[in-house]
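hey can u run this one w/ S-adenosyl-L-homocysteine bound, need the structure tokens asap thx
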Amino acid sequence: MDILDLTGIDLSKEAPECEPERQFYFIAKARELLHEKEREAGRKLTFCVTTFGCQMNARDSEKLTGILEQIGYVEEENEEKADFVVFNTCTVRENANQRVYGRLGQLKRIKKKNPHMLIALCGCMMQEPEVVEKLKQSYRFVDLIFGTHNIFKFAELTVVCLESGRMVIDIWKDTDKIVENLPSERKFPFKSGVNIMFGCNNFCSYCIVPYVRGRERSRTPEAIIAEIEKLVADGVVEVMLLGQNVNSYGKTLDTPITFAQLLKRIEQIEGLQRIRFMTSHPKDLSDELIEVMAHSKKICRHLHLPVQSGSSRILQKMNRRYTKEQYLALVEKLKIAIPDISLTTDIIVGFPGETEEDFADTLDIVRKVRFDSAFTFIYSKRTGTPAAVMKEQVPEETVKKRFDRLLTEVQEIAKEVCSIHKGTVQTVLVESVNEQDPSLMTGRLSNNLLVHFPASSSVIGQLKEVKLTECKGFYYIGELV
Ligand code: SAH
Ligand code: SF4
Ligand code: F3S
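ok here u go:
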């Protein structure tokens, strides 16, 4: 397949210049092209968007889905049966990349048999030049490659792809642009992620996100509130405000506003019942935010506060800009102001130079904070980050042993912390039918724990009072009251 590199090229003179109007023009155009393809195929054509990575990517995938549905593609859950497969990729750890290459290999075989099939790759992995180079060399059956900064151009790029029949590539290095009001299709009718900011300026020394997501940009409070009001009018009762570091929201806006002030304004939205947010960087968590959380009726009793390591020495090498003592003091303050708060975290094991003593500090902080749950990761070397070239990378065997020790500790504590709610009555948002037992519904507590209880599926999307009768380690069995 020929390659069409679009980076920096304006495609159509007749298309409107401003966004999102331009994309609506291309959605209409793609619809015509799709009709033609459907006539050839003698059937409706389908799509499947597969998401790797974090909630930001999940939200981006809802936008991709919205655009594809507007074009007229029909959703198909099995990617091997779909005519338009989109992989929205993640590159935060090496194994995320390996999964994408593995799945692509499988698709190659299927594409040979389906002449209508298109494969698009987007997301964080595509922002790495080595990845795009590899795809150009060894994955020539891919039709469309674009990045994180121009995801809003998906309709336009789809048109080029359908018209040219070539491999289309469009990757931007960075952007200061935020395109509002594109279509989006929610996974759940009753809850939704809402981006409040994009990018990250923190440059933690192990992390690739600032390189692939670009500089921090906040949406205006007006745009955020308008979006939430629209969601609420459409049946949403819970929003998850999304950003790599929500605590630094608003600092770069023309009229600066703090995250805490934004939360207060969102709290006023009538009909909205629950507010969640992630992720919070400990260094920017303000007293004002704790105060707002403590007094809020809608903000959930849950804070995801990634600690990454318990060793001040390692934290410094990670460029996290807080010490073990500062983190512990912050947790203390939070627990006093909001006694029922649930704290969860992320921890990396095996950062370059981590000694047994550093690791003991991580175990110690886990024991002192007593997290409700923790995501534990083995350090993964990301090309281009400062940590990748640090000497003293820890041997794999050592890391693996530490990882297992940490996991045991984290899980034992989480079980104990989880069990303290036994016998209480709590409000849950009913989210889905239980996968194993369809007579049970699954709901989420304010503190993010799940509870399974007998009920009919008609209560999905509603807030209900449930008695937590039995603790099963990391979740509850309950009954409606
Ligand atoms: N912005 C969020 C985190 C986004 S990435 C924050 O700062 O909290 C999610 C998690 O992936 C991080 O918290 C970190 O624990 C983990 N992570 C990031 N880079 C990693 C790497 N190179 N190796 C292993 N884990 C990593
Ligand atoms: Fe990565 Fe640090 Fe930014 Fe989080 S705050 S995305 S860990 S650089
Ligand atoms: Fe992965 Fe990108 Fe999120 S690298 S974790 S999908 S911001």
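The chain is about 35% helix and 20% strand. anyway lmk if its weird
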